Amino acid sequence: YVHCYALHCLDEDASNALRRAFKERGENVGAWRQACYKPLVAIAARQGWDIDAIFTAHPRLSIWYVPT
């Protein structure tokens, strides 16, 4: 669920709206978890696809980044 946490850190409003919509529709956690990817992909696209930079620049996300 790190990507859901990442979305919440990077765009709290979008994260809350997504979570609320899935809860209201009675969707399961797995569906919500999958839905968190699309907004993160959009954020990454706006940042030149540099996921490393996105994670390392954010204080709450930098602890999750492990170089490969």
TrEMBL record:
Pfam families for this protein: C_LFY_FLO
Organism for this UniProt entry: Cornus florida
Keywords: Activator, DNA-binding, Nucleus, Transcription, Transcription regulation
Family: Belongs to the FLO/LFY family.
UniProt function note: Probable transcription factor.
GO biological process entries: regulation of DNA-templated transcription
Name of protein: Floricaula/leafy-like transcription factor
InterPro entries xref list: FLO/LFY_C, FLO_LFY, Floricaula/leafy_C_sf
Subcellular localization: Nucleus
Domain Floricaula/leafy DNA-binding C-terminal per the UniProt entry, residue ranges: 1-68
Domain of life assignment: Eukaryota
GO terms for MF: DNA binding
Gene Ontology CC annotations of this record: nucleus
Lineage: Eukaryota, Viridiplantae, Streptophyta, Embryophyta, Tracheophyta
